[in-house]
Amino acid sequence: MPHLQRILLILLLLIGPVPAVAGGPSLLFDPVSGEVLSQDRAGEPWYPASLTKLMTAYIVFQKVQAGGLTLKQKVPVSAAANSQPPSKIGMPVGANVSVNFALEAMLIYSANDMAYVLAEASSGTVAAFAMEMNQQARRLGMNGSHFVNPNGLFDPRQISTARDLALLASAILRDFPEYGRYFSKPFMTVGKRKLANRNSLLRQMPQADGMKTGFVCGSGFNLVATATRDGRQLGAVILGAGSGKHRADLAEMLLTDGFSRSVDKRPQLQTLENVPTGSFVPADMTNSVCRNKPLTLARSSELGGWGISFGNYESAATADMALRGRMLSPSGIGLPGSPGIIRLPENRGFAAAVWNLDESTSVAACIRYHRENAPCEVISPAVFAKIAALLPDRTQGSSSTPQGENKRKPKAGVPVKKKSKS
Fold first, then answer.
1. Are residues 149 and 103 in the same domain?
2. What is the pTM of this model?
3. Considering 53, 212, 418, 421, which one is annotated as catalytic?
4. Distance between CA 323 and CA 281 in Å, rounded?
5. Are 422 and 403 spatial neighbours (Cβ–Cβ below 8 Å)?
């Protein structure tokens, strides 16, 4: 059977309906030994999307193990959690859900709101939780990763690599084997509805037993997948695939090929080098997976506080490129606030900017950027107010659509908000 499967794999690679490689990096690894079986650009930065939720789960598992949380404990849904876009469960503000339910919803259905619920229950605030995420990343040797939020919705500062995600997946499997059910469960129940696991590989490959999908327009379709055959478990990281089917097919190809190989001494995950943060801006997959979808532009209600501008540009796309690069520089990676693109009044172009800062942080940031020979201008609340007063508040598209699109309304009484991609 292994020989036949390898033949089928080769045929699929040669004549299959999908490309043989993803648009982004990929990696095949042994989570027990830490060995790398194959890799392509595994240290290249990429937007993790909902693969971020693996780190959120890892920290919550730690809190449960330490007694800070229990799986049966009821935790509240805040306004911030409720405001997260789909995919989401959609519980009203003030509702209470168990930690177990929130974990299932986050890991099986990829619910963005439940990631916020868990972060706030764990650390008090999302900002504090993000600090813990980065502390854990450093402890695990994930030196090419930086986290800003617990659900993976697009932020130019939120990056990882295939190498780092493999280290994280290995740590979960090693440290918390008792929680494997959250990654392998085929569906979860909400009211009378069964919500299928976003990881279609579980339905496609009999040996598959985890882990997590991710998608935003900027990242394309991501997947960390695990499978076990004859007692041997392997893991695959796929970044930047063209569709949900594409990423599952690519993962199956890698895993099937890995199981057919003999066990040899191979390089360790830790020996792979990440591209230094800031020296390489992740590719933007938007034009490939979200064609004709315009960039999200700032609304008047969002602008506030002090901030900084990285200059004005003729097009939103050029401003976005500048913003993504500046936010990954040494001066920007740890900067708080809200980065985004502002349409300037009177057709004067688009500004790449960060707002919701205080005055001292804004001034210090521009000083650092000037030392890097990068343009930076401090923007006062009064200037933001003038710009906001002239901005049209109308529906705008997004370059970072969370987990897919499906306009179907949920059944009455079941607050589930779903989208077809994941």
1. yes
2. 0.89
3. 53
4. 10
5. yes
Pairing outcome for strands 338-343 and 377-379: unpaired
Check whether residue 238 and residue 344 sit in a common domain: no
Pairing relation of β-strands 26-29 and 36-40? antiparallel
Q: For residue 310, give both structure tokens.
A: 């990285």
Q: Domain holding 336: CATH number?
A: 3.30.70
Q: Is residue 171 part of a domain?
A: yes
Question: Is the residue at 422 inside a domain?
Answer: no
> Which of 50, 160, 399, 400 is labelled catalytic?
50
For 20, 27, 250, the CA distances from 255, given in Å and listed in that order, are: 14, 10, 9
286, part of any domain = no
How far apart CA 293 and CA 314 sit, in angstroms, is 18
- Which residue range forms the structural domain that includes residue 14? 2-271
Together in a domain, 180 and 324: no
Q: Is 149 among the domain residues?
A: yes
pLDDT at 264: 76
For residue 87, indicate whether it is catalytic: no
26, 78, 87, 110: the catalytic one is 110
Give yes or no: 110 in active site: yes
Is residue 307 within 8 Å of residue 384, measured between CB atoms?
yes
Distance, in Å, from the CA atom of 376 to the CA atom of 91, rounded to the nearest integer, reads 41
Low-confidence ranges of the chain (pLDDT < 50): 1-20, 394-414, 420
